[in-house]
């Protein structure tokens, strides 16, 4: 019986082994989930041909109903593994509204026996786009050259690893295990206790995320919350989030007792790896979280440092009322509304009153003040909110310097309000050193980089945020904004649409989609998006300003002036609308008025001014010496703007 020939597929620096299900690069294994590998194999076998999305779904998931978003996440995983250039998809090309195509040249190579003999070239089969291998013998290296190449590769690799370790920007091992913590079910019998279950889930995500971030990635809260009350099979949830493990559980409160049930599931096959019930007093709730974290570390075989073990074991008892108020604060903070921030501040302050040494309560307070101060609102002026945010963050760090969230909150205030650029970068880097998996730190550090015109690095940070929080609508919306600033308008449009697929009513996604359309002079489409934003928030000054600029761009001056009057009337004497009003005047060509309102925005220390170098004002405004002076006073360099222009 004739033995079947074993074939490899070579493309670029990669070798794909379809029998062993292994992808190699320079002799090293490239980690891929089973479904990501199967997706790549199908693409490689059809190299040079467009594969329709439905065909790919049927071939990779033949017996399972899978949403298109799962395929898109697999493609994204493959692009990261292959190192695709974000400016141009080197290996996998997206064909809009159709599917995907592997565009690299592929060689189908016969298996080499230990003696070095291979099947003759006449027996070699090719796939579409394959180069002939007849010239390969002339290009084979001698054994000596191979060893020299390996030695040089190891030296370069060692240098690269040292660079990564010194950068502290959240770059971590590609071999990390990914865990998703699904919202714990509220079994207390009272809808009013939902905050407790949600809060416990969020705290578990925080503790596990800080456990061993170089080896364990934990999906962020906003993505996990999409599965609250889900009836989906946990294997499907794991596939959609790219998680190897899923933690589920329930919380039941009865008087001052709390019963917690937790289960760790292997997502690939739904195997229950570990389960335990805890029946404790409310004062011991943090200790329970530490016990669950330790048990999961043991089950996933993480080797914690003595410092990590000591931290888990040393969870000090927290006053039950303080903990409950903290959870209520986070519950309202996550609503991301002005009313929610005001309510959250009340609860965080109550938690601090009950337990003045509760560091996380101060971190929550800092986050609430910082985001309240960043939104136009009539509740608390920015000049009051932002200093309070800084004071709360500093207190949290005095109590516990290891809180990545507190370093991030401090960095946000220093960047957005004080324009202390070195201080903000230092705090962002410290946060990412403590927890490279913290999506918000990556997201906000991206703004620091974008402010300095470093668009590619900013987008890298947004990609890391998206990996930690794959279903985050705000991360997708911010990515769309960054792509617009970088001049990649079509990609910006697609990213905003992805955000709206997750939540068609999300205002910020409509705003960034409007920005992308306006940048392409698609003014009617931009106006339609801003109108959708106003439908959910009639007083939104961002939407009104965007719409006014679109009308001005279309030459409909009367409509632009009408929106200007509405904005002036709605804002009254508040300073937090100054930047939007300045933008409208600039769009109307009234430069003196624009600069007068820009000065008011400067006096209010408007956070939007950090993007002066990458926003796209009329050229007459940018060419004015007053603009360069404003950039200088915000602490930025005009050269950053030149970098941003080249990125476009």
How would you sum up this structure, described in words?
- With 648 residues, the chain is α+β, with helices and mostly antiparallel strands.
- The protein is built from 29 helices and 14 strands.
- Strands 9, 10, 11, 12, 13 and 14 form a six-stranded mixed β-sheet that branches. The chain has a five-stranded antiparallel β-sheet with strand order 4-3-2-1-8, covered by helices on one side. It has a three-stranded antiparallel β-sheet with strand order 5-7-6.
- Helix 6 (194-209) packs across helix 9 (285-299), helix 12 (338-354) packs antiparallel against helix 13 (359-373) and helix 15 (404-418) runs antiparallel to helix 16.
- The longest helix is centred in the first third of the chain and has 25 residues, at 143-167.
- The radius of gyration is 27 Å and the shape is globular.
Distance between the termini: 62 Å
Low-pLDDT runs of 5+ residues are 1-5, 113-174, 643-648
Helix share of residues? 55-70%
Q: Decide which structural class fits the backbone.
A: alpha+beta
Q: Roughly what fraction of the amino acids lie in strands?
A: 5-15%
The Cα radius of gyration reads 27 Å
Helix and strand arrangement:
Elements: E1 7-11, E2 14-17, E3 22-25, E4 28-29, H1 34-45, E5 51-52, H2 53-60, H3 68-82, E6 92-95, E7 99-102, E8 107-110, H4 136-139, H5 143-167, E9 177-181, E10 185-186, H6 194-209, E11 216-218, H7 221-224, H8 234-241, E12 245-254, E13 257-266, E14 271-281, H9 285-299, H10 306-313, H11 320-333, H12 338-354, H13 359-373, H14 382-399, H15 404-418, H16 421-434, H17 439-451, H18 455-468, H19 473-485, H20 489-502, H21 507-519, H22 523-536, H23 541-553, H24 557-571, H25 578-587, H26 591-603, H27 619-623, H28 625-633, H29 638-647
Parallel strand pairs: 9-11, 9-12, 10-12
Antiparallel strand pairs: 1-2, 1-8, 2-3, 3-4, 5-7, 6-7, 12-13, 13-14
Helix pairs in contact: 1-3, 6-9, 6-11, 11-12, 11-13, 12-13, 13-14, 13-15, 14-15, 15-16, 15-17, 16-17, 17-18, 18-19, 19-20, 19-21, 20-21, 21-22, 21-23, 22-23, 23-24, 23-25, 25-26
